[in-house]
Structure formats: C-alpha cells, structure tokens
C-alpha cells in the first residue's frame, strides 16, 4: 500500500501548522500562499506526524490518500 499526502489549496489558509509539525513534508516557501509537498509519499515513520498535521489543520485541507 502507498500513502500520499494531498493539500487542497482551495481550502488552505496558510496557517502553517502543518509545516510546524512536519517541515520536510509540508514546506511553505517564502511568499507562498500554501505549502508545497516536499515528499509526497508518506512512509510509516512519518505517518503519525502527517495524521497529526491533518487533524490539526484548521481548514481541514490535508488528506492522506491510500492506494
Ligand atoms: S495547516 Fe492547513 S491551512 Fe495551515 S498551511 Fe497547513 S494545510 Fe494550509
């Protein structure tokens, strides 16, 4: 199974909480209105932090997609 993280840029309000929790995956370049995904595939070691970011996002813009 592969897990990917997706940010819905139409929902994101650039609170930056995700980048504070997992800055290698949620990268907010200077001046960017939303995070860029630095590493799309979510490894097992990252899963709990990515889940925490998704739970913590006030805009509910983060989804983990499993395939
Ligand atoms: S926490 Fe949510 S709203 Fe804030 S930057 Fe991350 S994805 Fe966007």
From TrEMBL:
Keyword terms, alphabetized: 3Fe-4S, Electron transport, Iron, Iron-sulfur, Metal-binding, Transport
Function: Ferredoxins are iron-sulfur proteins that transfer electrons in a wide variety of metabolic reactions.
Domain of life: Bacteria
Iron recorded as keyword: yes
Protein name per its UniProtKB record: Ferredoxin
Entry's Gene Ontology molecular function annotations: 3 iron, 4 sulfur cluster binding; electron transfer activity; iron ion binding
Co-factor(s): [3Fe-4S] cluster
A Pfam family of this chain: Fer4_15
Organism encoding this protein: Nonomuraea wenchangensis
InterPro entries: 3Fe4S_ferredoxin (IPR001080), Fe-S_cluster_ET (IPR051269)
Keyword Zinc-finger found: no
């Amino acid at each position: 199974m592969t897990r990917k993280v997706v940010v819905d840029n139409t929902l994101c309000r650039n609170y930056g909480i995700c980048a504070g929790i997992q800055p290698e995956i949620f990268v907010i370049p200077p001046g960017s209105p939303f995070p860029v995904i630095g590493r799309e595939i979510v490894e097992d070691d990252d899963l709990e932090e990515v889940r925490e970011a998704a739970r913590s996002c006030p805009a509910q813009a983060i989804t983990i997609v499993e395939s």
